[in-house]
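ARCHIVE CARD
Drawer: 12
Card no.: 0347
Subject: one protein chain, sequence and derived structure
Cross-reference: see card 0346
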Amino acid sequence: MKISFSESFELPKSGLVAVGIEEGGHLPPAARAVDEATGGAVSRALAGNRFSGKKAETLTLVAPAGVSVARIVLFGVGKGLEAADWLTLGGKLVGAANGAGDSQVAALLDCGADDLISAAVGVAEGAKLGAYRFDKYFTKKKAEEKPSVKGLTVRVAGATAAKKAFKAREAVVDGVYLTRDVVSEPPNVIYPETLAARCKELEELGLEVEILNEKKMAKLGMGALLGVGQGSARESFLVSMTWKGGAKNQAPVAFVGKGVTFDTGGISLKPGPGMEEMKWDMGGSGTVIGLMKALAGRKAKVNAVGVVGLVENMPDGNAQRPGDVVTSMSGQTIEIHNTDAEGRLVLADALWYTQETFKPKVMIDLATLTGAMVIALGHEQAGMFSNDDDLAAQLTQAGKDSGEPVWRMPLGDAYDKMLTSDCADMKNIGGRAAGSITAAQFLQRFVKDTVWAHLDIAGMAWANKSTPMVPKGASGYGVRLLDRFVSDVYEAK
C-alpha cells in the first residue's frame, strides 16, 4: 500500500474519504466542504443518527449520486485525540476500505489535535500496520477475499513535514513487518539456519552480523543452548547484529531474543493439539530481528546490539533428557527437570555471551517463555521483570506511549530458592507455582551487574483475532515498544 501526503483538501476521484467531526456534531472546515459537495449528506446523517462526534465514534455513509467518492467515513475527535487514537484510526480506515472493496483512501485532517502533522503521521503508520497480510501460501483466494486498498493519502496542512517525519516511522513499520513475516512462516521454511540467513540479509542496512555455529558455541562452553538443540537434525546457531549509530566508545544497548523455531517440548513432549502454534516460539528473536532492522532503517543515533539464540527442540534418540546436567557458558551447572522449559536454557548462554562480548550498559531479553504468563496477564500486556527501577519505569512509559504495554512482575529470594537442585547449581524449573517468576529468576542468575529486564511476551507474540493495527496472526509486538524506548531514553538529548 502506497502512503502519500497532500496539502489539498479536495475530494478524491474515487474510493473512501474520511473527515473529522468535533464533539456535539460540529463540522470543521473539511467536513463542511464535504457536506456542501454532497448536498448536505453529512448534516442529514448527523441529524438522524446517534453519532455526535465523540472520541472514537465512526459513521460510514454511502456517498450520494454525482459525487466522485464511494463512501464517506465520519470520525469523532471529541475534544481531541491522543497519539494512539490516530494510529487506531488509520488501521480502521484501511479495514473499512478493504471490507467495502475500495482501492483508495483519503483522510482529511483539520481538527482533533494541536499537532496535526503528528496526527497525520500516526494515521499513516496505523494504516500501514493494519494493512499487513501474510497470505503467500494461499493459492485459491478469490479476488473479493484479497485486500483491495492500494493507496492512502493523508491530506493535512504541512504535508511536506509529515512526509519527512513518516519516513522514520515507516522504517519502524518495516521492522514490524519483518517480525511478522518470520514468526508467520512455517517451521519447514524458518528454522535455525534459514532464520540466521534472514539476519545476515540485514547487512544491507549497515548492520554487522556474526553467526556462530555449533562448533564455535561448543568452544565457548554453551552447553545450555546446545543441549536444547541436540535432538534436532537442524544445526543450532547464535547470531549477533550490531548497529553503530552512536558515539564511538559508547556502550551499546543490548536486546536478546529466544529463537526456538519449533518447540515440540522435546522428551517432555507437548500435547498434540495446538502444537502447530509452536512455530512462533521464536517470537522473541523475531522481535529482536525486526527491531534491529527498524533501528538501522531509521539510522537511530545509538549503539545497539541484537543477539538471538536459534534452536529447534525435537525428541530424537540424541535429545536431552530429564535428569541430564548441562554446563552453561557461565560455568554454572543446570539439572534438567523438564525439557519443555528450554527457552531459558537458550537465553542463559545468550545473555552471558552478550555481556562478555559487548559489555552493554542495558540488556533486555524477550521470549515467549511461559504459558503461566498468559494465565496471569492474558493477551493484553507482556510481563516485565527487572533488576532496576529506572529501567522498569522507562519500559512502562514506552509501552504506554507505543500502545504495546508491559506490566511489572516481582522478583525475590523466595522465588529464587525454588530453583534449588539436589545435584547441580540449579534446576531449570521451580514447580507449578509462580512459573513465570521462577523462569525470570532463572534468567537473572545469568545476569552480572548489568541493568536488565526480561519481557515474557508469550501472550503477545500472536494475535488470535484481528484488531485495527494487528491482523490475526503474528503481531510484531515489541518492535515499536523498544524503538520508542531507545528513542526516548537514548536519543532524546
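Annotation on reverse: The first helix runs from residue 29 to 37. The domain at 2-158 is CATH 3.40.220.10 (Leucine Aminopeptidase, subunit E; domain 1).
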